[in-house]
Amino acid sequence: MGEQTIATANAEGVVIALPAHALRALELLEGAGYEAWCVGGFVRDALLGRPGDDVDLATNAAWTDVQRVFEDAGYRTHETGVKHGTLTVIVEGEALEITTYRTDGIYSDARHPEAVTFVRTIEEDLARRDFTINALAYHPTRGLLDPYGGVEDMRAGIIRAVGEPAKRFSEDALRILRACRFCAQLGFSLDPDTYAGMMANKCQLSRISAERITHELDRFLLGAFAGEALMRTVDVISAVLPELVAMKGFNQHTPYHIYDVLEHTAHAVQAAVPERLVRWAALFHDTGKPAAFFQDAEGTGHFYGHAKISVELARCSMNKLLLSPAFRDRVLVLIERHDDVIEPTPKAVKRALARLGGDTELFRALCALKRADAAAQAPQCAGRVALADELEVILDELLAADEAFTLKKLALDGRAVMAAGVAQGPDVGAVLAAALDAVIDERVPNEKDALLGFVKEWLGARADAEGESR
Could you say which of 162, 261, 357, 388 would form a disulfide bridge with 367 (CB–CB 3.0 to 4.6 Å)? Predict the structure, then answer.
């Protein structure tokens, strides 16, 4: 099978430009009498015309022999995974993983083989790979080795498991999310038998570490086809994001929406800029809608308070996924504020910025979320996309004019307030907040003398109020 496939590949004129450090590694191994191939993701991405950086090699040499070959040639090595036959070598300043041909033993933890068996041929090694599009090997002179039809599946846009799908996913449950991620990155569909194997084993995802799951979800959400993939794989992904179940098929019964909650979410994710913060916020922004839903006498659906429920659902999910507290909190702010009405005026934008603690990047992310949310609504809501654009233009103008929308930008500080007669304590913060409100509302210019005058008026008003209360 191998020779015939190689001949076919050569006849097709398959040529992959390997990096210099990978070519040097092949040269050293083969100069020492061993066989080696470039394998896996680099080959796949090269055939798809996608950029690839990490190159992996497979060889019939034992890892100890690989180490000897490279160290004799003056290159450093690291015993990163020698239990499974993998040695990392540093060639021309680049890290390269080289693994001895192997087959995997029993996967008792649904993630890692307890042991591996080293084998003689590249064909045996490719048989342990997860998907046909990854079960590929390339050599500059021997051409492309494709024993499982990976190239044909690429042309058809299909993710297909190597061998028996149920066995592949029971061995390593993370492969289930990898399949979903490839759908999101490549826009491929899932082979029906492969999808059935994923569904049959999705319960095994509970045995995978939160860090691994989050890593795959990050890459899934940043995929160019994330929205389409979400709809295709939701019944699988719901094993790690159970909030999605209630959203599927949930009719919104509102003229502002033409999709159910899950479809709307998928369209919002797809429309969002491929930035991690915005995509996670888009994923969770309406998870609270099914819980908040009710219909009025005319049958129109309403979701009052859904943002707060979405915040709590997202908080719980992100905590389980071990997303960093700082990142989680920024996502939650976006979810909480995604329906805030912000008029396209400097005053309104400054007030919104003040609510965000003056975080201009978070404000831009909020605009991006609003833009994606609007793009996923009914056509009559298209104007909201332009509104989000206008809000960012106003932000740029405020920044260019160095306008004040946080206490840091206020031309007055606590010491000046106390020097003006305000007693140390909570009143200092209260008068500063009132002064900032006055500046934002353009009732007082952001100038020290004008603000000191405001403080005196504040003190006078307070004294008058205390006198009346007596």
Answer: 388
